[in-house]
Amino acid sequence: MIYSAHGFLPKCASEQAAELRVIDATCPLVTxxxxxxxxxAKEGYSLIxxxxxxxxxxxxxxxxxxx
Length: 67
What we know:
The chain has helices at 10-16, 28-42, 56-65; strands spanning 2-3, 23-24. The chain is mainly alpha-helical and 67 residues long. Helix 2 (28-42) runs parallel beside helix 3 (56-65). The protein is globular and about 35 Å long.
């Protein structure tokens, strides 16, 4: 399984990684956004994410922040 450059839902990782060889092709810039979103959310900041709600990067970022 190859994860998209746009990121992936954590649910996908846990459900499918157990049975497949996983290659995480997430772009380092996307990963940086995910890490920063989690960091600032944990610090109590309210985040505003501008993008298309159905775009993979937006879906992935919101999912990472909710963990």
